[in-house]
Amino acid sequence: MQFTTLAAFLSLLVVTHALPAPGDEHSKRGLANVYYSCNTPNTVAMTFDDGPYIYEQGIVNTLNQNGVKGTFFINGDNWECVYDSSTISSLKSAYNSGHQIGSHTWHHYDLTTLTWDQINDEMWRTELAMRRILGVAPAIMRPPYGNFNDLVRSAGSVRNQSVIIWDFDDGDSTGSTVAQSEADYQTLVNQHPNNVLALNHETYETSAHQAIPYAIQKLKAAGYKFATVSECLGLPAYSWYGAPQTKDSSWTC
């Protein structure tokens, strides 16, 4: 009787250890690389989150006037719907001006609170919108709030998207005034790090029309060169190229 009980216990132990831990089936697919800073010397990557929104075209104009290439991490259904005619127009303008478009996922949810399927859905919807509107699929993504885990990295690997964080935050989304954001940029210039991956948001009027022009002037005067995220990291800009599509009734949020 003791032998039988021991044998049953050992059999159960083997079966238990053979079962994969939650998420293991996804981690086997690989984990996307995570980047917190650029690696090209004396280079700044200006990034803009949470759009497309009504201030995007103004930012694009400012960047173009200063010969600066920026990177826009867009949502699908956050401040506005990416399929609205006005947002389609500003998004195309940014892309056609040579600025990079990355994914900030669909709803701006904290991805670390979602399941594997939900994470993929958040990423896929934004990817689909970019394929439709611009004819490209993103090669980079920024998780909302900068929050990620191995499920997020695994989904990024499956979708051929690197995870991009930042090493400088101008504070606009956490309550900084224009004066505070400008002071932070001045401190950054005084410290003069080797390179900068700057987080800004295109959804604040004061950031778009005051803090960002100020930052560009100060960084240019300090001798920095500007680049997209992919340029400053030596990564592909997009994971797929096709042709833009014509809007139809399926383009909804």
Q: N-to-C terminal Cα separation, in Å?
A: 64 Å
Gross morphology is globular
Outline the low-pLDDT stretches: 1-24
Total discrete domains: 1
Q: What is the average of the pLDDT values?
A: 90
Order of helices and strands: HHEEHEHEHEEHEEHEHEHE
What CATH architecture label applies? Alpha-Beta Barrel
Specify the CATH homologous superfamily. Answer: Glycoside hydrolase/deacetylase
Helix content: 40-55%
CATH class: Alpha Beta
Topology, number of strands: 11
Q: How many distinct helices?
A: 9
- In angstroms, what is the radius of gyration? 21 Å
Protein name: Carbohydrate esterase family 4 protein
Organism: Artomyces pyxidatus
Secondary structure topology:
Blueprint: H1 2-18, H2 24-27, E1 34-35, E2 43-51, H3 56-65, E3 71-74, H4 85-96, E4 100-103, H5 116-133, E5 136-138, E6 140-141, H6 150-158, E7 162-164, E8 168-169, H7 178-191, E9 195-201, H8 205-221, E10 225-226, H9 229-233, E11 238-241
Parallel strand pairs: 1-7, 2-3, 2-9, 2-10, 3-4, 6-7, 8-9
Antiparallel strand pairs: 5-11
Question: How would you sum up this structure, described in words?
Answer:
The protein is of the alpha/beta class and 253 residues long. The protein has one domain (27-241): Glycoside hydrolase/deacetylase (TIM Barrel, Alpha-Beta Barrel). Helices cover 42% and strands 17% of the residues. The protein is built from nine helices and eleven strands. The chain has helices spanning 2-18, 24-27, 56-65, 85-96, 116-133, 150-158, 178-191, 205-221, 229-233; strands at residues 34-35, 43-51, 71-74, 100-103, 136-138, 140-141, 162-164, 168-169, 195-201, 225-226, 238-241. Strands 2, 3, 4, 8, 9 and 10 form a six-stranded parallel beta sheet that branches. Strands 1-7-6 form a three-stranded parallel beta sheet. A two-stranded antiparallel sheet has the order 5-11. α4 links the parallel β3 (71-74) and β4. α3 runs parallel beside α8 (205-221) and α5 (116-133) runs parallel beside α6. It is globular, with a radius of gyration of 21 Å. Residues 1-24 have low confidence and may be disordered.
